[in-house]
Amino acid sequence: MSEVHQAITAHSQKQHAIVKQFLQLEAKREQYIDEAVALCQNGQPFTVEKINEITKQMNELAKQGIVPQRKYVTVDMVKEYVKRLKK
Fold first, then answer.
1. What backbone phi and psi angles, to 5 degrees, belong to 59?
2. Contact (CB, 8 A) for 38 and 23
């Protein structure tokens, strides 16, 4: 019974680590999105490269089936979001 318990514990710890990493990436992604939105609102140039690098990492984690995938962000998506905020 001990081996089963250890296997379950190891599996649970692995899943917890994936979720924890995902949440850290999610926070960083949101930060980069906020930065892009702020730059766009001020009429300054911005890119979505950092956002999508984080998105790529998140989607790699999602392949393990524990966390959801995230959509890649385009410059047009940010501009459209800013336009909706102004209304």
1. -70, -30
2. no
pTM of the model: 0.86
Run means of pLDDT, 10 residues per run, the chain, 87 residues: 85 91 98 98 97 97 94 97 92
The pLDDT value given to residue 76: 97
- Please, are residues 54 and 32 in contact by the beta-carbon 8 Å criterion? yes
Query: Under DSSP, is residue 54 helix (H, G, I), strand (E, B) or coil?
Result: helix
b (16+ CB within 10 A) / e for 72-85: ebeeeebeeebeee
Domain residue ranges in the chain: 2-86
